[in-house]
Design a protein that fits this description.
The protein is of the alpha/beta class and 588 residues long. It has 24 helices and 17 strands. Bound molecules: 2'-deoxyguanosine-5'-triphosphate (DGT), calcium ion (2 copies) and zinc ion.
């Protein structure tokens, strides 16, 4: 049995991948065997794409379990083990000592490989990101052989990406702990009300920090409780009504305490967004009111008019209360004043999930385990949608394997009367817009997803043509993760998105809102445009490769809300008979 991962046990896959990748880069710089260099890069890519935390894999099965992950050999597994158990990797430290620190800093820039980094370092003596930005601004890189205006732009973009990647975290990295701490706060007798605020309450895809708010008549008790919670790693600041802590996974949380009388005004203010608040303040001013985190006041008499609840704050301005997810000053204030706020889709409306992988391809769980999870989520249906054979790296199914899966699913449907299991597949849209299987196979499936998994850097026309061709395929019901972005890692591919929306609406093809927290693709603004301008319809899918990640639906629904989607816009909210009827409409 493996040692329980201790010190380093909560290292994220992304951080492990970054270290393994850095090892490969340093080996490259040191002129080591290219085979070893590539092996490290492959392992890093594989870890990045792996959804289950490696520390869990390791806890369950030791280093041997790690080698089951593609790209991870025995050597790498041992190193990961070392990292997980001790939080240290001496081999990595050793390599770092051989490479100048300035060069290591340059290696952090996405898209700047070791060869180019070394050239910049050696020829121009640039030893930091700051110096690199300056050199680009002065166009000093252009003089280097193999560099030009274009590569300067690319490097600058890489630096920006690196910086934003480190300023903000994914919503999913902060949300669970915020919710956990909120629940603890609400249990305390001296806490009257407590909520999240800021970008986390608005469920923005990335957040700068975690804002919490509570009301109490005993602020000292609240502060004392907050800084003594077991999750606290250290206390950054402790005040009478505001404290900041860092929790064990490195995130910062701020808690403010206000009086019960002020709570609504404070919650409104600290929820933001800033743009929403600025607009609201303007409306208040026109009416002779002043609005701030303490309440709404009459400017002339200074009399306090509202502030105990958020509803009260909006009501005094003659408005309905807009749901936090849409408080971005993008029309919600007008809608609230005209009493035509959208009836946003909610998690409770979701009756199923259209995009789930199992161990038949690159998922981790069996179909039975997926069914069990679906039942705990209260679903009426699920779609098993594994990859097909052309996506070999994802263990895609051959026609024969698919036929076998169809039989297995039919048998499972016999056993489970309370849930319907649909057989779908995720087709890979190739460079010509063709997919793995033709009509004779696809017609056997209940649902077909078409997604792009490669060729991301092709010209706009080519990428768009691939998607348009797939949209015209009468068997493809859903376009998976339509823009291909991966937050902090990969920009969306360059497509004519409006042409895709138009074709989606015309062909009756649903657009996926992929709930995976680093995808959330389509994003909020795109959802709204696709709906309002083109009349598209959507599915909210998790693309879970681990049954536990089917709970990511919550992030998808939040993003749908941010895109102003209602129940009617989302296929997963319809009952099975309606879903089948709507899917059948595209079939020949
Ligand atoms: P973040 O943390 O960057 O993801 O974004 P937020 O929206 O959470 O911003 P944060 O944490 O700086 O402040 C929380 C809320 O407080 C913000 O959404 C609105 C409010 N707020 C902060 N600064 C200002 C300000 O200067 N004016 C107004 N009207 N509201 C502000
Ligand atoms: Ca914030
Ligand atoms: Ca804040
Ligand atoms: Zn998928």
């Amino acid at each position: 049995m493996a040692n329980k991962a201790q010190t380093g046990g909560n290292i994220r896959n992304e951080d492990i991948a970054r270290i393994i990748e850095a090892i490969g880069d340093m080996l490259d710089i040191l002129g080591e065997n290219q085979f070893r260099v590539r092996a490290h890069r492959n392992a890093a890519a594989s870890i990045r794409g792996y959804t289950r935390p490696l520390f869990e894999v390791y806890d369950a099965g030791g280093p041997k379990a790690l080698t089951a992950i593609s790209g991870i050999g025995e050597h790498t597994a041992k190193r990961i083990e070392q990292l997980l158990v001790t939080g240290q990797l001496p081999y990595y430290e050793e390599l770092k000592a051989k490479v100048p620190p300035g060069l290591i800093e340059l290696l952090n820039v996405p898209g700047l490989g070791p060869k180019k980094a070394k050239k910049i370092y050696d020829s121009l003596g640039i030893k930091s990101l700051k110096a690199l930005v300056e050199a680009i601004e002065e166009h000093r890189l252009e003089s280097l052989p193999g560099f030009g205006r274009k590569s300067e732009e690319n490097i600058l973009r890489g630096i920006k990406q690196f910086e934003t990647m480190h300023e903000r975290i994914l919503l999913s990295e902060g949300y669970p702990i915020a919710r956990e701490i909120l629940a603890r706060l609400r249990e305390q007798p001296f806490v009257e009300r407590a909520d999240t605020a800021g970008s986390l309450r608005r469920m923005q895809e990335t957040i700068g920090d975690i804002d919490l708010l509570c009301s109490s008549d005993e602020p000292a008790n609240v502060m004392e409780f907050f800084i003594s919670m077991p999750q606290v790693a250290y206390v950054l600041a402790q005040g009478e009504t505001k404290s900041s802590i860092v929790v064990t996974n490195g995130l910062q949380l701020d808690l403010r305490v206000v009086t019960p009388e002020q709570y609504g005004a404070a919650l409104q203010y600290f929820t933001g967004s800033k743009e929403h608040n600025v607009h609201l303040r303007h409306i208040a001013k026109v009416r002779g009111f002043k609005i701030n985190e303490y309440g709404v006041f009459d400017v002339e008499t200074d009399q306090r008019l509202a502030g105990k609840t958020e509803e009260e704050v909006y009501a005094i301005l003659d408005m309905e209360t807009p749901p936090p997810a849409i408080r971005e000053d993008r029309g919600e204030i007008e809608a609230a004043a005209e009493r035509r706020l959208p009836n946003l889709v909610e998690l409770a409306d979701i009756k199923g999930d259209f995009h789930i992988h199992t161990k038949w391809s690159d998922g981790l769980n069996s179909i039975e385990e997926v069914i069990a999870m679906a039942k705990t989520l209260g679903y009426d249906f699920i779609v098993i949608s594994d990859h097909a054979e052309k996506l070999r790296i994802a263990g895609g199914l051959s026609v024969r394997e698919l036929e076998e899966q169809l039989e297995v699913i039919a048998a499972l449907n016999e056993q489970h009367a309370d849930i319907e299991i649909l057989c779908g597949m995720e087709m890979n849209i190739d460079n010509d817009g063709e997919v793995d299987f033709g009509a004779s196979v696809l017609e056997k499936l209940d649902v077909v997803i078409g997604s792009i998994h490669g060729g991301f850097t092709q010209p706009k026309e080519k990428l768009t043509a691939r998607l348009l061709k797939a949209l015209e395929n009468p068997y493809i019901n859903i376009i998976g993760h339509p823009t291909g972005r991966v937050l902090g890692q990969r920009p969306p591919y360059d497509i004519d998105i409006q042409a895709v929306f138009k074709a989606s609406a015309e062909t009756g093809t649903f657009l996926e809102l992929n709930s995976y927290p680093n995808r959330l693709d389509l994003k909020d603004d795109h959802l709204r445009e696709a709906k309002d301008v083109f009349g598209c319809m959507f599915t909210i899918d998790t693309d879970a490769h681990v049954a536990g990640n089917m709970t990511y639906m919550e992030y998808g629904v939040a993003t749908a809300q941010r895109g102003w989607l209602t129940k009617q816009d989302v296929l997963n909210t319809y009952n099975m008979a309606e879903v089948k009827r709507m899917l059948a409409q595209k079939r020949p």
